[in-house]
Amino acid sequence: MNKRLLKIAIGNKSVGEGHSTFIIAEAGVNHNGSLDLALKLVDKAKEVGADAIKFQTFKANQVVTKNVRMADYQKGNVGKKESQIEMLKKLEFKEDWYPKIIKRCKEKNIIFLSTPHGGFESVDLLQKIGVPAFKFGSGDLTNLPLLKYAAKFKKPMILGTGMATIDEIRKAINIIKSVGNNKIIVLHCTTNYPCAAEKVNLRAMQTMMKDLDVMIGYSDHTIGTQVPVMAVALGAQIIEKHFTLDNKMKGPDHKASANPEVFKKMVDEIRQAEIILGSKEKKPTKGEIKNINIVRKSLVAIRGIKKGEKFTKENINIKRPGTGLPPKYYFKILGKISKMAIKADNLIKKNDFI
């Protein structure tokens, strides 16, 4: 088995241990077919602290056949029944948008990503555009021919794993590694929109960390900020969350997305969590060092001790401050002879006994 990479570069960002969590604003199809709205999503994603914004690249007829019905959550969010292909046609990311969106992303210093939702043709288009990584949704985790095809470009491969078993995830990883691409990041997620707390199963992410030889992150479909922050605390290196300008907009994903206020709250809480988590090294902090001698303890005479008197449990004890003989010497000096008179409440030093 190949050793898991500890760091993967996505554009100008490093993802992995020792680096801040890579946060993706999943704009997806929340542009509602409007370039102006897509540009506003870029601006606002940067404003609320995302490292990257991600859209979806597809033509509707590349994704579904004509008569595939909507998912239940889509019916509820859109507010009417129509075929998936009818819905998706209205949500295509137009090809002439790419230069304008990418230009805006560069101006705002936010990374542009897009999911090749339309299969091989979408991969080719995104490769031509020069995306720094490929992110595949959960629906393509078992699309091994597509994963293998994209993996040959040797870019980071980010995989959603909703609906998947651990064996299915392994097969996807193995097909990517079979063409010499080890730059793999697997995101735990649950394919419900929105996802209820009891469906999150965040411990599965820990299983993935233990059993899979790749970097792990989390793609969030819950309402609010608690779950993604918990995922970071458990070790997620990437957080992806659906992003909208307004939850009241019409469209399949707006209701289950984070609006700017919620997304910024999530980013702020993740950054604070990173500070709290600190490093893996256990050592005194700078603030603790100045407290060591005040808080720790030393051997102390609890009554006056005469020269030549033995140290016993009746005349010594352990008290603050920690500037004298450390407590570890307590049993070693019992029965020793005092070389000098020691006043009550004075610290005992190394040269005070024979």
UniProtKB/TrEMBL annotation:
One of its GO terms (biological process) is carbohydrate biosynthetic process. One of its GO terms (molecular function) is N-acylneuraminate-9-phosphate synthase activity. Residues 298-354 form the AFP-like domain. SUPFAM superfamilies: AFP III-like domain, Aldolase. Pfam families: NeuB (PF03102), SAF (PF08666). CDD domains: SAF_NeuB_like. This is N-acetylneuraminate synthase.
